[in-house]
Amino acid sequence: MRRNGSQETLRSYHGAMDYSLTALDSGLRIITQDMPSARSISVGIWVDAGSRDEVGPQHGTSHFLEHLLFKGSERMSARYISEALDAIGAQHNAFTSKEYTCYWARIRATDTPLAVDILAEMIQQPAFRQTEIDSERHVVLEEINMNEDDPSDVAHEQFVKAMWAGHPIQPAILGTRDSITSMTRDTIQTYWAERYTPSSVVIAAAGRVDHEDFVALVTKHFGSWEGVAPTRTLQTLEVRSAVNVVRRDTEQAHLVLGMPGYVRDDDRRYAHLVVDHILGGGMSSRLFEEIREQRGLAYAVHSFRMPFVDTGASAIYVGTTPSQAAEVLKIVRSELAKLVESGVTAEEMVRAKGHVKGSLALSLEDATSRMTRLGRSELVGLDHISVDEVVALVEAVTLDDVLKVASDVYAGPFVLGAVGPFDAASLEEFVG
Asked: Global pTM?
């Protein structure tokens, strides 16, 4: 999977959004943003491979791979990787989602060559030693156990199963005990060979970085990498009202009520961002005020969005005493109905827009946040737009835009995922 590579600078844009992007002939993309005042750099390897891409016995492979690549290659052992990164004070980790996997490190700018060398070796030359697969298998199983011991996580997983039944988004990122226990070295290696190719990878960096020097460094370590571009199955979604409950004698009921939302690149996402904050995005939100502040029915209550390339959802999470679950769900449905019927007030719009602007500015204060924004947007095909451009798009949202989004999203159909000492039948009225 190696050959000599060349490069082509697709664009170097130094306007409102200051970044540079280069593509190698192999399809590997390199995107950077220089922060002249920084002394560190965050580097991320973004791979277009997530749990939605797994088929049959591959269930859980994306996340399993995330663990195994840190076990190193024939040249670099797991101990060498951890000691080398620790010796330079690096922050490093990885994460897996439904649609992608990211391996990242934050280091002093002077230590960039070492970090890129290690990441390149991990991604391109994993050893897949059987003894390490077996030992890490137990670690992943413990992670599944930990997840299943958290009733909030279980409720969210039940919501996903109800919302995306039969869709590639449905399977759990961690896999199942059965799939992880039975997963073979051949299954893992085959999946890696299919999904980890240069055309499915974006290397992003933000901080003290010179683009041309970074491209030269990446080309040195990744320039001869080869592979065929992988495919992804996209699928439309027909949601039907459903209730999924895991019955447990818990002290608190965990409820996730949701409905279909927008895909990731929908132009209405900025209006949806505003209305979602008004509904349950902060301490001044309608749900927080009504459920927690006015009635004292919950400690945790919030709304959230889940946009993907071909589907999406909007949902509300509440943790409450089981005897209050019905009352809380009635309030949530009532607040959703008010949004659909009446929209929001001008005062709420001002607060929500102010929050979006402020939180966006704060989130881009450090190099890792900027690297994440760059890498993820490039990988999933979103335009790179500046903070000022996002602010302008948010400012352009009108009361009418919000009312249309509320009517489109919050009218249902509804699905519910829950954990508590009750059965699904007792909650079915809240998805009708």
From this structure: 0.93
pLDDT digits (tens, 9 = 90+) for 307-327: 999 999 999 999 999 999 999
Place of tokens 């409450």: 320
For residue range 275-294, list pLDDT tens digits in order. 999 999 989 999 999 999 99
Catalytic residue at 66? yes
Domain limits, the chain: 7-222, 242-431
pLDDT of 168 higher than 60:
yes
CA–CA dist 310, 237 (Å, integer) = 8
Cα separation, 243 vs 418, whole angstroms: 8
Helix (H, G, I), strand (E, B) or coil at 21: strand
- Which is nearest to 375 in space by CA: 397, 1, 35, 367? 367
**Catalytic residue (one of 8, 54, 66, 395):** 66
Q: Any idea which fold 242-431 has? A: Cytochrome Bc1 Complex; Chain A, domain 1 (3.30.830)
CATH of 7-222, one of 3.30.559.30, 3.40.50.150, 3.40.50.2300, 3.30.830.10: 3.30.830.10
| Residues forming a β-bridge with 307 | 312
